[in-house]
Amino acid sequence: AGADYVFFGHPGPGETKGNAAELLLDRVMWWQPLFEIPCVALATSLDQVGALASAGADFVALGEAALEDPRGLVAVVSEAERALVEAHGAQK
Question: Which residue positions in the chain have pLDDT lower than 50?
């Protein structure tokens, strides 16, 4: 009732345990065709960014694991942006 977006993922300790990445992809793919409200998906690693965008996430948030990358924030954001561009290009 009046939500601007929904957030999928579990920030904090335990965010990458088990098959959480697979469940997150499933949830995004389920949500996208059914609802107009945009969804944000939490990528706990840079490897997940493209997959989440391809699954239909309107926005991809970067989790702690991505933000703690030793290459620094600029490199992380640049890599994430490339993954998003590639994912959106593949959808067209």
Answer: 92
